[in-house]
Every structure is written in C-alpha cells, then in structure tokens.
Amino acid sequence: MIKKEDVFKIGKIGKPHGLHGELSFQFDDDIFDTTDAEYLVLEIDGILVPFFIEEYRFHGNGTVLMKFCDIDNVEQARELTGCNVFFPREHIDKNGDLSWAQIIGFTVENVSTGRHLGTLRSIDDSTLNILFEVETTDGQELLLPANEDLITAIDAEARLIKYNLPHGLVEE
Questions:
Q1: What is the C-alpha to C-alpha distance for residues 20 and 67, in angstroms, rounded to an integer?
Q2: Positive or negative, the Cα torsion across 132, 136, 139, 142?
Q3: Which residue, among 55, 73, 74, has the nearest Cα to 64 in the 3D structure?
Q4: pTM across the whole model
Q5: Cβ distance 17 to 68 under 8 Å?
Q6: Fewer Cβ atoms within 10 A, N terminus or C terminus of the chain?
Q7: 142 and 131 in contact (C-beta within 8 Å)?
Q8: What are phi and psi of 5, to 5 degrees?
Q9: In order along the chain (172 residues), what is the average pLDDT of each group of 10 residues?
Q10: Cα separation of 4 and 172, whole Å?
Q11: CA of 76: how far to CAs of 80, 135, 157, in Å?
C-alpha cells in the first residue's frame, strides 16, 4: 500500500483527450520527465493507486497529454478526471536539487536551537514572497519566508529542512 509520505503531489488530471484513453495532465513539477519512474500515483477516493505510463507528450506550458497502460477509451479516462497526481519519492535523485513540491512533508528544524518547528504542509507561491506553511507540533499554522538564504541545508534522506529562523519571528 502506498502511503502519503512516500509520494509528493505534482499535479492534477484534466479532461480526456481524444477517444483512446489519453488524458490532459496539468503539472506543477516536471520530475516525471527527468527521472526513470515508470509510473505515477493517482489519488482515487482517498486511495493512492499506481498507474504505469505508456507514453506522454508536452502540450503547451504546464500540460502533458498522458496515456496510461490499460486506460484505452474515453470512458475509462473520464473516471480519472480531477484526480490528484503524485510522484514516488523513491525515484527522486537524492543528490540533485529538490523542487518545492519535493520537500512537502519534510520536518523544519530551527538551526540555532535544534528544535523542530513542525512539518512543511504546503508552499504558498501566490505572491512574490513565497511562504512555507508549517504545521507545528501543537497543530498551529506557522508561516515562514521560503527564502533560500534562510535554508541552511536540506537532507532528503532524513526528510529534514534546516532553517535559520529570523530572531523574533516566532516565540520559542
């Protein structure tokens, strides 16, 4: 069984394209094109299900026309419309640069105190100042500037972000 912590969200399935099971896929992270993963994971009724990639082609900026194995007609494709698409963490290059999407779910640690601030739940990039939305250990939301100068290290293996928390931003 695939667990949420084993994957990260990269996009959403759009409507069917054509009659042979091809789907439009709006992506936020094109990691599926830069690694050797044979499958993507779709969330269907709350369950994470692997779908093997038959073929795909880019269709504009941020959209791919995707064909999954065993999805052969428009009716089957229509059932997947609206599903969130995830990428398996086991296929990411642990030594390469990580995208924002790949660090969702990592623990954020204050470098100066060694204390865990919480878990990175999402990234708000709706404005010029990108923010980490961190869920603290007591269930509160903490917004932190997602400035690369404040991130001292990211350990993909330990799923840990070492963060240089500006003095006075939160009470510790």
A1: 9
A2: negative
A3: 55
A4: 0.69
A5: no
A6: N
A7: no
A8: -70, -10
A9: 88 95 91 84 96 93 94 96 92 70 89 92 86 91 91 89 84 62
A10: 30
A11: 7, 37, 37
